[in-house]
Write a structure and sequence with these properties.
Blueprint lengths: L7 E3 L6 E3 L1 E2 L10 E6 L2 E10 L8 E5 L2 E4 L14 H13 L4 H18 L7 H9 L4 H13 L7 H4 L11 H36 L7
Antiparallel strand pairs: 1-2, 3-5, 4-5, 5-6, 6-7
Helix pairs in contact: 1-2, 2-6, 3-4, 4-6
């Protein structure tokens, strides 16, 4: 959705919700829509506004309703606890999501399959791997990951789960949902355990100073 001047939304630079303002240009002191020539007719609209958060003030540029700056989405960066092999696919999927849902979905599916392999789940295809991991996940995550098969219409597109990185037709909302589930799985498998370990280490340090036995 295009962010308009004096409208509120989440900034793709800083992620904060705020009111956006028009950027002053050399054409006018109050310009947000600029028509320019293409193929002998005026057809495309360049829309420019800016985040009003003082620590950001980042510009957001739209071409015919498509955000062309900054590239990517407002999704958070992959947590540092996530392995590099997964981080690269996830970040790239987020980067191309506004430009190609097909490419974003393919990268997200490949990232998902590699994540499951990291957890020791290896079957003949992604469909079977999802079935297997559902037995190990809490219900909210089990339902979310199962929905990937439903939304992605795996039954009609077997290439999606047999060759996860293939660029194929996608269903409405498929790329977005798969990325959402990846964020949940990152928190479950990597971020949450890392936080718990850090808290446990801190507590053990306090217990040691108090002359008590550490947690096992």
């Amino acid at each position: 959705m295009v962010i308009g001047a004096n409208e509120t939304g989440k900034c793709p630079h800083c992620g904060n919700s705020n009111r956006f303002e028009t950027i002053d240009t050399s054409l006018s002191s109050d310009v947000s829509n600029i028509k320019f020539h293409k193929d002998n007719y005026y057809s495309e609209t360049l829309k420019i506004c800016r985040c009003t958060v003082e620590t950001c003030r980042g510009p957001i540029v739209f071409l015919d309703g498509q955000m062309i700056w900054p590239l990517g989405t407002i999704r958070p960066k992959c947590p540092g606890e996530v392995p590099k092999s997964l981080t690269e696919d996830y970040n790239e999927a987020c980067l191309v999501e506004p430009l190609s849902k097909k490419a974003a979905a393919a990268l997200a599916r490949r990232c998902l399959q590699n994540l499951l392999h990291e957890q020791g789940i290896k079957k003949r295809d992604l469909d079977k791997e999802i079935e297997e991991v559902m037995k190990q996940l809490p219900s909210y995550l089990s339902e979310s990951i199962d929905a990937i098969r439903v939304i992605g219409n795996f039954a009609a597109h077997p290439t999606k789960f047999k060759q996860t990185g293939e660029i194929v037709e996608v269903e409405e909302g498929e790329a977005e949902w798969t990325l959402d589930v990846l964020e949940q799985l990152f928190d479950f498998y990597y971020v949450g355990p890392a936080k718990t370990k850090a808290k446990r280490t801190t507590l053990n340090s306090k217990l040691k100073l108090a002359g008590k036995s550490p947690l096992k």
